[in-house]
């Protein structure tokens, strides 16, 4: 089995993607184009591949439904990937386009003493639009319209229940082919 090529310059490219990820979480639901992209791992978008190379290491676990063997082998080689048996046990939950969304309430939400020990969902979407919801909260100068095509059914209602648990709850990174939008648990969304 051939390993997939990662970034051209693993350290510098991962640093750039990490800074972009932090910026996306600091300005929620404002899609940002990733500064560099590796070749896409089989079954995933290029931006998702970039995030996995950046966020996954031997200290965290990933849950993902049925990734191709070549993708798993490359992530094990480049990132020391450790898979979780269930989404409830994982630090990161990867949902490629079209995957079923596990109940957000079932995922690791942190604790009152350690709210940072919660899960992050990496959710692929088709594209970003300004239509579906109005969002506000920390990181917003004013409310912002946002939408994404290809979201799982009932995503926004699950998100509202997730936000109601703040400061506990999960965070989500919405990922298109080349962009990402951060959705921290502090974000308030209203549909319509």
From TrEMBL:
Annotated GO biological process: organic phosphonate metabolic process
Keyword Zinc: no
Gene source species: Aquitalea palustris
Keyword Plastid: no
GO molecular function, one term: lyase activity
Keywords in alphabetical order: Lyase
Domain of life: Bacteria
Name of the protein: Phosphonate C-P lyase system protein PhnH
A Pfam family matched in the record: PhnH
